[in-house]
Amino acid sequence: MPVEHFVRRDAPAFGATALEQLADVVRLARTRGVPARDLQFVRDLVQVGTASQLAAKQGVTPRTIRNRRDRAVANIRRAVAA
């Protein structure tokens, strides 16, 4: 996914797609200090599609991907809730 997709925009319009909403959350999380590796992980997961596919691509187990996902999501949630 091009970096431009994650460039700051105004608040999403009513009816924004799930991907647009996720992009908005990722942008907000970046401005609130979420580590770049967590944000890149989310981008990679969205691009690839599933934890199993990303695991195969990275040469790790699906469990490793799920653990990384959980850590990234927890960091993003904390940042957005702040």
Report on this structure.
It is a single chain. The protein has helices at 18-31, 36-48, 51-58, 62-81. The longest helix is centred in the C-terminal third of the chain and has 20 residues, at 62-81. The model has no long low-confidence stretch (mean pLDDT 85). Helix 1 (18-31) crosses helix 4 (62-81), helix 2 (36-48) crosses helix 4 (62-81) and helix 3 (51-58) packs across helix 4. By secondary structure, the protein is mainly α. Helices cover 67% and strands 0% of the residues.
List keywords for this structure.
mainly alpha, 4 helices, 82 residues
Strands, helices and their partners?
Layout: H1 18-31, H2 36-48, H3 51-58, H4 62-81
| Shape type | globular
Mean of pLDDT: 85
State the helix count. 4
Q: State the total count of DSSP E strands.
A: 0
Elements, N to C (H/E): HHHH
Strand content: under 5%
How would you characterize the largest beta sheet? none
By secondary-structure content and strand pairing, the structural class works out as mainly alpha
Span between N and C termini? 27 Å
| Helicity level | 55-70%
Rg computed from alpha carbons, rounded to a whole number of angstroms = 13 Å
Low-confidence stretches: none
Quaternary structure annotation: single chain
